[in-house]
């Protein structure tokens, strides 16, 4: 490892008021950028689902499983690009690299509007997945480079909740655009949707070029403020998120760390297929194409409320993280299983109500992702676990889209039932995960007491280990957040 690239151990102390002012400045600049970018990413990702109810399937002459394959190919591109993208995130300036990928995927979304057949759509969807694969792991690295561990979850959930906010906002915008396109008889509604979303993304990408980055990269902090920003996260014990040399020892450690297997299992939960096939499920209840957009808004609103409640609960009571991860899976598990068991003659509003129970399903997955910057130390190890997690996520989504078979349309009972069963597995894994963290923390507490190390000494060891790029397994003073 190239030790010349490692920072000196930070020992200066920040005044409490100065720290608050600096945190406020960081939030004011950074959080809007992360929130808007992530919201646009989700809106672009679901443009296929919006388009299919406005004529994409007929205009592109899609048959059989071709629609499902368009979603699968997105995640295939995402999966194949994840490892090289994660490597690039470690080697190149984080802010500039993410900005370029944002502009790239915006161009690809606009290209969707020009597609006329399955082959063209397949190529663009594959490339779109590849470009978007850098965003979530890149954002988790940004959070780790700016915030204390006590601040990470609330900030991460803040930009993750934009999947809900933007699905509501753009849902209304798409409704207006689609209705106008249908009434005017001009360009097909699904093409207008993609042109609109792509243009918004490209414009935002150029804003990111000037404002997004780590403390060492941004222009909106003075040199003194940059040093203060590095100082305030030193106690995390898991590094500053900056550029580091690749460490193969940390790669090997990943293979023997139980955490990676827990991350991989949770990541394969194919919940993303609900976003792809959700509009078609609403249509199966008996709603029209335009009604599917309007009647999906309450689901988004409930998801937003749940996000906010979870963020507030974890901020005030950190020990509620894993119980909330478990509870968040129960309603969708019950709702989807009930839809699968109910007769076809069941009133559409009953099915609509049961499907709205899925509004909490995204939060447990996002909470699991926030554990990467919280509980993984070592720059290379964090990169490997992050990229592996999102590769598994892609595998899960590809499988999930294929369990929704064209032969099962329009109700997709088999697909909904499979997803509900997998949610049940997620509950068990979450319980095991918390037990592992508790046991490991108890072991480390006992070792600290046996070695007669004070809390102050332990904190200094933890700071030094983080500054010198030690992993969470190498640094026995590190404690897991659970």
UniProtKB/TrEMBL annotation:
It comes from Mycena metata. It is found in: Membrane. It comes from the Eukaryota. Gene3D superfamilies: MFS general substrate transporter like domains. The chain crosses the membrane at residues 67-85, 97-119, 125-147, 159-178, 190-212, 260-281, 293-312, 324-342, 354-372, 384-404, 416-436. Pfam families: MFS_1 (PF07690). Keywords: Membrane, Transmembrane, Transmembrane helix, Transport. GO terms for molecular function: transmembrane transporter activity. GO terms for cellular component: membrane. This is Major facilitator superfamily domain-containing protein. InterPro entries: MFS, MFS_trans_sf. It is a multi-pass membrane protein.
């Amino acid at each position: 490892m190239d030790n010349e690239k490692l920072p000196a151990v930070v020992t200066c102390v920040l005044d409490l008021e100065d720290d608050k002012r600096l945190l406020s400045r960081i939030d004011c600049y950074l959080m809007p950028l992360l929130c808007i970018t992530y919201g646009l990413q989700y809106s672009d990702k679901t443009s296929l689902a919006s388009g299919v109810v406005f004529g994409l399937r007929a205009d592109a002459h899609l048959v059989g499983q071709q629609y499902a394959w368009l979603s699968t190919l997105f995640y295939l591109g995402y999966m194949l690009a994840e490892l090289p993208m994660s490597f690039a995130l470690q080697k190149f300036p984080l802010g500039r690299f993410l900005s370029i990928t944002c502009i790239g995927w915006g161009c690809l979304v606009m290209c969707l509007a020009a597609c006329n057949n399955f082959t063209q759509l397949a190529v663009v969807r594959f490339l779109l997945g590849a470009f978007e694969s850098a965003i979530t792991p890149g954002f988790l690295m940004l959070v780790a480079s700016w915030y204390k561990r006590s601040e990470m979850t609330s900030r991460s959930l803040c930009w993750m909740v934009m999947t809900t906010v933007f699905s509501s906002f753009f849902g209304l915008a798409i409704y207006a655009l689609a209705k106008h396109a249908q009434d005017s008889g001009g360009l097909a509604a699904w093409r207008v949707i993609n042109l609109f979303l792509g243009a918004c993304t490209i414009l935002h990408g150029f804003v990111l070029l000037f404002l997004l980055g780590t403390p060492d990269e941004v222009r909106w902090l003075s040199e003194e403020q940059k040093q203060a920003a590095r100082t305030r996260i030193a106690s995390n014990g898991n590094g500053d998120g900056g550029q580091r040399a690749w460490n193969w020892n940390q790669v090997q450690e990943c293979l023997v760390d139980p955490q990676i297997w827990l991350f991989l299992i949770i990541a394969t939960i194919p919940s993303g297929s609900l976003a792809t096939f959700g509009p078609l499920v609403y249509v199966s209840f008996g709603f029209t194409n335009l009604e599917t957009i309007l009647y999906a808004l309450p689901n988004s609103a409930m998801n937003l409320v749940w996000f906010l409640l979870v963020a507030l609960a974890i901020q005030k009571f950190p020990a509620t993280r894993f119980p909330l991860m478990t509870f968040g899976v129960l309603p969708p598990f019950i709702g989807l299983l009930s839809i699968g068991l109910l007769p076809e003659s069941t009133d559409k509003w009953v099915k609509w109500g049961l499907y709205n129970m899925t509004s909490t399903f995204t939060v447990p997955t996002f909470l699991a992702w926030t554990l990467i910057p919280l509980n993984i130390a070592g720059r290379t190890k964090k990169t490997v676990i992050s990229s592996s997690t999102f590769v598994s996520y892609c595998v899960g989504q590809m499988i999930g889209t294929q369990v929704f078979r064209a032969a099962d349309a329009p109700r997709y009972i088999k697909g909904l039932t499979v997803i509900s069963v997998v949610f049940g597995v997620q509950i068990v894994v979450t319980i095991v995960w918390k037990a592992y963290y508790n046991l490991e923390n108890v072991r480390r507490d006992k070792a600290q007491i046996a070695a007669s190390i004070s809390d102050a000494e332990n904190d200094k060891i933890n700071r030094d280990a983080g500054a010198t790029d030690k992993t969470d397994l190498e640094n026995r003073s590190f404690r897991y957040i659970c």
